[in-house]
Amino acid sequence: MSRDARWKALLELLVERGRLDVEEAAADLRVSAATIRRDFDQLAEQQMLVRTRGGAVVHGVSYELPLRYKTARHASEKQRIAKAVAALVSPGDAVGLTGGTTTTEVARALAVRGDLSSGPPALTVVTNALNIANELAVRPQFKIVVTGGVARPQSYELVGPLADEVLGRLTLDVAVLGVVAFDVTHGAAAHDEAEAAVNRLLCERAERVVVAADSSKLGRRAFARICAADAVDTLVTDTAASPDAVRRFEEAGVRVVAV
Question: What is the DSSP code string of 199-230?
Fold first, then answer.
């Protein structure tokens, strides 16, 4: 296992458990305790965790794993979801994309659609995610609009009044939301309130709202609400979503596509 892959795995374990000791982490990753101690020390230097005697704890009370350290969790599910979301977009649409691993896959799925290989433009993509804009900017058939704002290093998303100003002047056909939680009662949510505010405005400017979320995100709630469940037209998720969760969303008026 490479150092980069090991660090990603360590940070995800730390986010899940809140605390790790050296021996536990070494057993989970099948490496030596000395390697884990060295990894913990180097990650602590980058302020990615707090070193403790014999282990490490998460850095801060509320912790969000930065996008660059997220491994391909539920990767196959996210790719299937992305393909299904991309199929909901029509040529010529103005599409809003929030940041996140799943919406990044949606951007990639749109980029390889054969019927979007040319156009004047084939799509207009509005995003506050720097990584998505960077990936799609090389596609001359797509018109890319970046909101502006202050970049969040955790998600590469632009937030703040500059982003609000741009979005307030636009109208979208569809907004695709990447979320950390989606619940019938509590709605769609993010970890960060500034990020949620921009995503909320993206929804308000769109005719249709699509939530792209694997089944691990369903029935959960997070700190900052983006929108209520009844503001979402379609949820695209994977087939591991429980029948009860699907039924509750459908009763709330959300169309559910499970792939």
Answer: HHHHHHTEEEEEEE--GGGBT---SEEEE-GG
Residue appearing with tokens 């979005």: 167
Residue 224 exposed, middle or buried by CB count within 10 Å (0-12, 13-18, 19+): middle
- pLDDT digits over 197-244, tens only? 999 999 999 999 999 999 999 999 999 999 999 999 999 999 999 999
First to last CA, the chain: 31
pTM of structure: 0.79
* Spatial separation of the C-alpha atoms in residues 96 and 30, rounded to whole Å: 42
Asked if residues 179 and 188 have their Cβ atoms less than 8 Å apart, the reply is yes
CA distances from 69 to 134, 161, 253, 254 (A): 18, 28, 35, 32
Geometric angle at alpha carbon 26, from 25 and 29, rounded to 5°: 80
User: Given the DSSP bridges, would you call strands 142-146 and 181-183 parallel, antiparallel or unpaired?
Assistant: unpaired
Bond from prior residue into 121 cis (ω within 30 degrees of 0)? yes
How does pLDDT run across 150-193, given as a tens digit for each residue? 998 878 899 999 999 999 999 999 999 999 999 999 999 998 99
